[in-house]
Each structure stands twice: as C-alpha cells, then as structure tokens.
Specification:
Blueprint lengths: L1 H31 L9 H10 L3 E2 L2 E2 L41 E7 L2 E6 L2 E5 L31 E5 L10 H7 L3 E7 L2 H7 L7 E4 L4 E4 L2 E6 L19 E5 L4 E4 L8 H9 L4 E5 L14 H11 L3 E5 L13 H10 L14 E3 L17 H38 L9 H41 L6
Length: about 475
Amino acid sequence: MKKMLKILGIIILIPVVIIVLVIIIGLLFLRFYPSVGQHPSDAEKESYESKTTYYHDDAFHNEHESSLMSGESYPADARRVPDRMIEAEEPELLPAPSDEDLTYTWLGHSSFLIQAGSKNILVDPVLSMRSSPVGFAGPKRFSEIPISTEEMPDIDILLISHDHYDHLDYQTILELKGKVSHFVVPLGVDTILKGWGVEAERIIPMSWWEETEIDGITVTMTPSQHFTGRDPLKRNSTLWGGYYIDNGYHKIYYTGDGGYCDVFSQVKEKLGAPEIMIAECGQYDPSWATVHMFPEETVQAYFDAGAEYLIPVHWGTFCICNHAWDDSIIRATKEAAGTGAVIITPRIGQTVNSSDITSFTEKWWEEYNDDKITGGGKNMNVIKKIMSSLLIAGLIILVIGLYYMVIKAGIPYQDPTPEMQIQYTVDMTIGEKLTALGFCMSLVSGILRIVFGIMGRKKKNVIG
C-alpha cells in the first residue's frame, strides 16, 4: 500500500514540477528574450508623466473608458484563414517624379509604404511569416510577403503605431534599421528600439497631438482607443496611436488600431479633413469592442474624419480573431454602398498612384472563395482536425489507462482474496491495453503533424 501511494505521489508530483518549470521558463523568456523588448526605466516613466496626462499608475490610459476581453466572443469561423495562400503583386517601388505625386503600396495587414515625391514613409512593417515573438508559433501569415527587407528602398521615415507583434516585428526591424533615417514612435517604443540596436538620435518618441517635421513632411501623432503590451505582465507600459501625415500636397491619416470614439472628428477639427484615410478594419470581436472597430464603425469613422478616400487595413494577412478572414472587407464595402463613401481595395503588393486611386476598387478577395480552387486547403484543414481529435482522444485514453493501472488495480488490492485477484488482473489488463492504445494514438498524431507540417512548408499554395 505504501509503495503504491509513493508511486501515486510521484505521478502527481511530475505534472506539478513540469508546470513550475514552464512558469519559470516563461518568466525568463519574457525578461530576457530580445524580441519581447526592454521595458521603460523609472526615469523614462517619470518623463511620461510630464508629457501626457494619460500616463499614471505606471501605465498609459485611454481618454475614454475601455475594456478588454469582456462579454461573449464570436464562435470560431471555419474560414478564419483562406484555403490557399493569398498571392501578392510585385510592388512598383519607384520614386515619384515630383512632390505632388503620391503612391501607396499595401504590404499586408497594417504594413504599407507611402512614397511622397522622393520621400519613402514605411508604416508598421511586419515582413515575417508569423506575428509572434518566436518564429515557430503564433499567428501564421496566409498571404505572400510582397517585398523582402533586402528589396526595400531606403526609408526616410518609419512610423510605428504601437508595440503589438502584428505592428512591431523584431526581425523586420533588425533587417531594416540600417536603411532608416528616422523612426517616429509612441512613448515607450523608443526603449524597445534602442534595445534592438537603433541609435537614440534616430528615434523621435511622441505623445498624442505632438508633431514633428522631417524634410518638409509634418507628422502628427493622433490618439486611438487601444492598449499595448508585448509582455502580458507589463500591460500599457508604452503608448499607442495613429499618425497624420502632411507633405504640403497630400494629407494622409492612419488610424492605427483602436475602437470607435470621437477621435476621428477630433482629427478633422484639429488637423483638417484628410485626403486618404488608412483605417483599421479587421480583427474585431464583441469581447474587445471598445479597442477594435467593427467594419461598420470603420466606415462611420471615415465620415467623421471627412476623408475623401478610405483604405481598409488590418486584414488579409494574419488571423488573430474568430471571424472569417474576408468578413471585414465584405461588411465594410456593403456598409459603404450607396453612401457616397469611396473605398479603395488594392491587392497586397499593388502600388496605387493617388492620381488614379479610384481605379483600385476590385473585389479581389472573391477569387479565394472558389471551391474548385480551394479544395486542397479544405482537405488539409480536415486532416488537421482529425489529427487534433486523435491527439485529444489518445491523451484521454492514456489517462483512463493510468487510472486503471495505478488507482483501480493498484490501491484497493494490496492483499487480495482470490476473487479480488481476478478483478485485479482484469483491471490491470484493461489499464495496460488502454495506456498502450492512448500512447500509440498520441504518438501517431505527433508523427502525422510533423509529416504534414513538412509537406505544408514545401507546398507554398497550401496553408499549413
């Protein structure tokens, strides 16, 4: 009896030790892994209090009350990612012939390049396959990367809206930092960039409604209703926002991430109606309704700001929500129909010239809803579900088997009668067979995941 209790204690202790080790490793990861980024020092925190009234209690705050993860979430849609990789166009990255000319190239999600005359302005560049601190886990890109960091031209101004991984990417910054003249970032993000080797003299940290002029281009940081945190234990230690860009010929307003509020009408009142509004339109959910806009709210925000053209972003690349991957653009264009709103919908990688901007209104996403084309991806999704079910079933059977071996057969029958010996043999046999079956099912599931993972990487047109 004592021996079996000792074995049982060891079995219980093992998962506890594993959990403790996982917690310790996680804390060390958040503290030392470079892609997570450094946290502001006490001196930097004191400086924030003098720059904005929205910093107090060691955190930045929104102007209006907001909440995160409150209420019911959408159920997971089966079409959260398309069934095949979204193809990207080859960008036409040529300097515009004069300051009056302006081009816009969408690089996927919220990454885009503005070429205003001879000046290149890059915004929230994420040119990696995952939106994550690591390269092997996290939301995986389902659209092609239209341009590599090597092909990217020299950047005069690089704007970062906030520190979330789908807007601030460690590897992309490392590869681009030698090409960038000026980094314009929210308060606190400068600390992260300096930790990644960017010199302080090239970084311009800003607060809401602050402006800076670089080579004749005025950049104003605008508020948004959002939050930040690369480290879940250090929420809102850096600021968030959008940007208003004015080069004297064109006015562009990028909203950054954020929920619907009166900031859009404030932008119009303080800075004037923009020509082009590049607005968040995707990754929304009822549980975070105050920090991400629904598509209908994006259209209303466009009217509030008085913009001439609306370019929806924050969609078409990463899945960090439960709605269908194209739900946002479908709902936004439907909401805009008949209202006079002009929504511009370029393909990823497509270069839009402001002089011909109304030509880019194609509903290209409909090409990815053809069952004849996307059947392969659907088969892969079915296989992934089968593998997941096999793994879960295997683990459940394994636990039941251990129960029969250790608890049912092991503890009650330490001094068995002949009748009890028979029951002991039956329980132990059942336990051994169930344990073996569960182990084999889990092992097969793991092997299949590895095999199909390799196949997915080799086959570019299938989302692995």
